[in-house]
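Exercise 7. Given the encoded structure of a 47-residue chain, write a plausible sequence.
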């Protein structure tokens, strides 16, 4: 049986995890919000 170091298992878990998109939007009141969906109509996408 092959013994895999815990650090290698943790690195593999990080590499296999899905990438989530984050969108930064500025509302009409100037407040910044983060979402996984595109910016709503009344907001502006920010970089």
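Solution.
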């Amino acid at each position: 049986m092959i013994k895999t170091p815990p650090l290698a298992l943790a690195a593999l878990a990080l590499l296999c995890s899905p990438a989530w998109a984050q969108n930064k939007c500025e509302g009409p009141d100037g407040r910044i919000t983060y979402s996984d969906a595109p910016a709503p109509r009344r907001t502006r996408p920010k970089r």
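Remark. Residues 20-47 form one domain. Students should compare their own answers with the one above.
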